Automatic annotation (TrEMBL):
<comment type="similarity">
    <text>Belongs to the Gfo/Idh/MocA family.</text>
</comment>
<dbReference type="InterPro" id="IPR000683">
    <property type="entry name" value="Gfo/Idh/MocA-like_OxRdtase_N"/>
</dbReference>
<dbReference type="Pfam" id="PF01408">
    <property type="entry name" value="GFO_IDH_MocA"/>
</dbReference>
<dbReference type="GO" id="GO:0016491">
    <property type="term" value="F:oxidoreductase activity"/>
</dbReference>
<dbReference type="InterPro" id="IPR055170">
    <property type="entry name" value="GFO_IDH_MocA-like_dom"/>
</dbReference>
<feature type="domain" description="Gfo/Idh/MocA-like oxidoreductase N-terminal">
    <location>
        <begin position="5"/>
        <end position="123"/>
    </location>
</feature>
<keyword id="KW-0560">Oxidoreductase</keyword>
<dbReference type="InterPro" id="IPR036291">
    <property type="entry name" value="NAD(P)-bd_dom_sf"/>
</dbReference>
<protein>
    <submittedName>
        <fullName>Putative dehydrogenase</fullName>
    </submittedName>
</protein>
<feature type="domain" description="GFO/IDH/MocA-like oxidoreductase">
    <location>
        <begin position="133"/>
        <end position="251"/>
    </location>
</feature>
<dbReference type="Pfam" id="PF22725">
    <property type="entry name" value="GFO_IDH_MocA_C3"/>
</dbReference>
<dbReference type="GO" id="GO:0000166">
    <property type="term" value="F:nucleotide binding"/>
</dbReference>
<dbReference type="InterPro" id="IPR050984">
    <property type="entry name" value="Gfo/Idh/MocA_domain"/>
</dbReference>
Amino acid sequence: MKQKLRWGVLGCANIAIHSVIPAIKNSETSVVLAIASRGIEKARSTAADLGIERAYGSYEALLQDPEINVVYIPLPNHLHKEWTIKAAKAGKHVLCEKPLALNQEEAREMVGACKEAGVKLGEAFMYRYHPRYERIKEILKSGEIGTICGLHGTFTFNNATDKDNVRYRAEWGGGSIYDVGCYPISAARYLLEREPEAVTVQTFFSPEHDHVDMMVSGLIEFPENIGVTIMCGMWAHFQNTLQIVGTKGKIDIPNAFIVNSDLGGDFKVTVDGETRTEPSKELNQYTIQVDEFAQSIIDGTPPRFPSEDAIKNMKVIDACLLSAKNKQRVLLT
């Protein structure tokens, strides 16, 4: 058996405990060697619960472990830059949660630090590793639904009563654009294979939640007159959808970003009034993400999604936040 990459996890966030750590443990390429928290007791109890060999009472201590090859960073958004750069300087490859940073300048600094250190940096957009998205791109490029006219993406949920949640700390990078709006933004850029020209965003900033953006509706203008509308929020009925409309048909993805046994990955293609279902195998897209990122490290090959993509995505997020704040159309070109 080939030697597996040894991962360290900085923090005990829910996304790490319930999604990414199980994904690493189930992967073909990797093992979880250590987890760190700001206190040793939390780290030890989490390690015991998850069967992780080593626990550290500080993030610095984990980075000093010479046997760790890769770190996963699920920390609040405002800590991504600091710990990505520290991990890079410690010689660790980094898979960092989305959004990579608080703005494009931070993202550019993080990418530069990782390149200088000779380590790889990945942004954890797990949805795009699911093979159904390659199938969707095949359909789009085939011309089956005609010329693309527009996309509509939603990602909303209602967690408004949990007012101590890190999502509701403005200085920590809270808000729905950072948390879930980044997904349809990323998906539109990925599927259209081009960058937008302008954004206009209408937002509800909640005084009850440190004035973060709790509900967002936006228009993102792409070249060739393609309009992408997005809706994201943290005080709304749960939605997780993407629709692509063409001159001859459309593609509907009912569970566009979150996929599990309850939320299947099938999507529908409608052409000239006839609809078919494109089946999707039950796959763990977190595990696929881990294996693909790890394999690029093992093979020394460029990752399918270069870290520079995160800078481009942050540029759009920056424009959305500026548009929301100033209630104006923001040009990106």
